Amino acid sequence: MSKVQTGHPTLADVARLAGVSRQTVSNALNNPDLLRADTLERVRQVIEELGYSPNRAARNLRMRSSSLIGLRMHAVQEGTANAAMDRFIHSLVAASEQAGYHVLLFDGVGEDPVTGYADLLRATAVDAFVVTDTFLGNPQAKWLHEHGAPFVAFGRPWDAEAPRHSWVDVDGAAGTRLATEHLVEQGHTRIAWLGWRHDSPIGQDRRTGWEATMRDHGLATDDLDARVLDSVEDAARAAATLLDTAAPTAFVCASDTLAMGVLHTLWIRQIAPGRDVAVVGFDDSQVAQVFPVGLTSVRQPLEDVAVEIVRILSSLLGGRGAQPEGVLLAPTLAVRESSLRA
Amino acid sequence: MSKVQTGHPTLADVARLAGVSRQTVSNALNNPDLLRADTLERVRQVIEELGYSPNRAARNLRMRSSSLIGLRMHAVQEGTANAAMDRFIHSLVAASEQAGYHVLLFDGVGEDPVTGYADLLRATAVDAFVVTDTFLGNPQAKWLHEHGAPFVAFGRPWDAEAPRHSWVDVDGAAGTRLATEHLVEQGHTRIAWLGWRHDSPIGQDRRTGWEATMRDHGLATDDLDARVLDSVEDAARAAATLLDTAAPTAFVCASDTLAMGVLHTLWIRQIAPGRDVAVVGFDDSQVAQVFPVGLTSVRQPLEDVAVEIVRILSSLLGGRGAQPEGVLLAPTLAVRESSLRA
DNA sequence: TTGAAAGCGCTAACAC
DNA sequence: GTGTTAGCGCTTTCAA
Questions:
Q1: Which single residue of A21, A108, A313, B253 has CA 20 to 30 Å from A88?
Q2: How far apart are CA B177 and CA A162, in angstroms?
Q3: Strand C and chain B: which residues 28-57 have CB closer than 7 Å?
Q4: pLDDT bucket at A4, cuts 50 / 70 / 90
Q5: Is the pLDDT of residue A317 over 70?
Q6: Domain B11-54, CATH
Q7: Which residues touch strand D (CB under 7 A)?
Q8: Which fold has domain B172-300+333-339?
Q9: Pick from A144, A146, A112: nearest CA to A126
Q10: Is the Cβ of A292 closer than 8 Å to some Cβ of chain B?
Q11: B320: pLDDT strictly greater than 70
Q12: Does residue B1 register a pLDDT over 50?
């Protein structure tokens, strides 16, 4: 007597209805070329009819893989405009799906920065990770590498000379270079840099784009360089000081948050953004897009970043254990009113 | 001869080392009370020693469940400040983890709005869904209900009198009521509403909070009601018109995007936000938080929403097939300079 | 080209 | 309390 159909159809159900063995059905799905055309057609028809889809858990168990990519998500930092985390996550989800993966989110809570990774890895709940919080001496990357866990980092390993793992990053210096060149084109010569005080390698990188471009154009940078915490208030104060002491006509900022501070000071002083003093931010956050004046901002190509990450991940998981690979992508500049004289 | 230790330790490994049967190890994990204290201790020690964690796929296959909650993620809408999607997603991830679940993201791409759901469901890749795009006649909710898929909606089913599925939502009317009451307290009497033109039930709901509060205070609403598309530019124009025709001293807006438009008009006219004309937005987006003036905004309790959703989901999956449940949560008001006279 | 057998690692049911 | 048996649904040998 045949089993009661409690839930979803299984491979066996399809096989029975199609009058073939289970293996043939499996082949129809995974190695269609092995079947004779008419058999394939018949099996496919039954699959369609039944709305059959291979059980994930069973396949995972057998294949020793989950088709899941783990991504640790942090709490949104309130009061800042920097992270475009949701844009990146969506890009990653879309790119992963193209490659047959799904994204599993886990929480970055707790003291130990690797706990979440360890648990998922030991339980073979995910095939690989995408690590986003890559800073100097990133403990996750180190741990994952040591444990042989496949992963790709969004962000360069700033410390290692010869990185041991693959990464994809956006060229921050190229971004600020774009911004500075754009301002020079607009006729500015006194272009200030507003960066982060506790300077991360990321902040340093972004700063070099401004500095190098200024140098290239023979423009002075003395007194035009300020560093503050990544807050609107601090940026506003720093902008005020800069305006008083160095009279810049343009600001390149390490973040949209800082740019907002500059705009605040301009507003207080009745200085028109764009016409009187130009401002450029970094990240093309929603704030930059929605701010009434329209904040010009460096935009990271997160869609491309995601595609590259998934590509590397696929080759990693595909067994092609190639050399660690680093990909550096160029950002673009979203030009808006805050940097236009018109 | 014993098997080669290729990868992770299994239940059998633990059992062998602890000198017990596999079942005993399983019990140590899932039904600790069944074991004698010393046995439990011994098993636990070996588990610790080996860094053992049950294989997810095997457990999933056996339990016919994945401990995964599916969430469809849409592309970020550029140029608006409304969605606090990342805040919600993180809240959901955190709450899920507390309950032993993880969040699986999939993409909302394609013509057919239920494709992604259907695929995951048929493959038993997820145990349940969280549906966020709940609007009138929501096709996903209908489809999921018809297919007996467990899910909870973030958002009320506006059409049904007796909803067939569980939902959690934020009381939009209560939010705009808070906003309006706050403005009345600040001494405003001519408080305008700036809402959406193609009015969704959500927009209508938010509007009623303003209208009812105005009525309660015996304040006129004629000519103080404008509807536009959800864009900064349209909002700016509408605000200008309202200022000319009805001279409001305060604006309650259906979104932060609209509020930005109002602020833009105020800026152009050299009207000080807060001091001269008050503005309140909706969603407490990053824009509201970072905008130099500080935009007062209705804040959805997304953390609580996530907790409630997971609670309902857990009971749904726990077999307690209770009646569909609806939970309406009250938002709060994040008060900032844009609504303060001081 | 197709079929039969084995087993991935786990837990529910039942014996002891 | 603990051990034995069976089987979740799939894919990878190997044989026909």
A1: B253
A2: 59
A3: 29-30, 52, 54-55
A4: very low
A5: yes
A6: 1.10.260
A7: A 3, 7-8, 10-12, 22-23, 26, 29-30, 54-55, 58-59, 61-63; B 19-24, 27, 34-36, 38-40, 58, 61-62, 64
A8: Rossmann fold (3.40.50)
A9: A144
A10: yes
A11: no
A12: no
